[in-house]
Amino acid sequence: MMTSFDHIYWLGGSPCAGKSSIAHQLADQFGLHLYHCDTEFERQRQQVTALSAPTIHHLHQLSCDELWLRSVAEQLHTEIQYQAEQFQMILADLRQLPTQSKILVEGAVLMPTAVFPHLSQPHQAIWLVPTEPFQRTHYAQRPWIHDVLRDCTQPAQAFENWMQRDAAFARWVQQETAVRQLNCLVVDGNQTIEETSNQVARAFGLRDDY
């Protein structure tokens, strides 16, 4: 029997759309238990084997060049596989959490294809995707980017591939949500975090003002 996730809200999307900031605001405002997929992943990765999660295991063995100088198409393909494997670990975690409280799960790993089978109602999920200019502007401001690419022999090309991969992932998310008639909000920087947070809250049915 499939576990019921009626008590869960899913906030997915591609990187650099403000998901984490919005998740914190919603959790504080509505008393939701917050599950950050990225935060939990470091613990989960310690349990990964080549058998249990072959894509995750393989990608973490690659050098910086091997990882980031691959074609963008290959990076997108393996990213989707990687996230599908991680999602199974997230489901295992969620099945262990109490069901009495509402839970907000946030992370790019929450792909529409993975989340859709676990939705009782479409309004339980929403995806945020940035426009490519917004994504590039805000990624470039993140200081840890240099640490990620420090060992690459062509850091500029590696960064460009990274940006193209995430832009392609954003387009893929938009396509997959459209096919399933799920909520997807494009973030272009014209709204504040508070305004976007209110839109997400209304989409979830947490508030009904307009």
Say how many strands there are.
Answer: 5
Q: CATH topology, what is it called?
A: Rossmann fold
- CATH-assigned homologous superfamily: P-loop containing nucleotide triphosphate hydrolases
How confident overall, as mean pLDDT? 93
Rg: 17 Å
Question: Structural class of the helices, strands and pairings?
Answer: alpha/beta
Uncertain regions: pLDDT < 50 for 5+ in a row? none
The CATH class, by name, is Alpha Beta
Tell me about this structure:
The chain is an alpha/beta fold and 210 residues long. The protein has one domain (8-204): 3-Layer(aba) Sandwich (Rossmann fold). 53% of the residues lie in helices and 12% in strands. It contains 10 helices and 5 strands. Helix 1 (19-30) crosses helix 10 (193-204). The protein is globular and about 50 Å long. It starts with 7 loop residues before the first strand and ends in a 6-residue tail after the last helix. The mean pLDDT is 93.
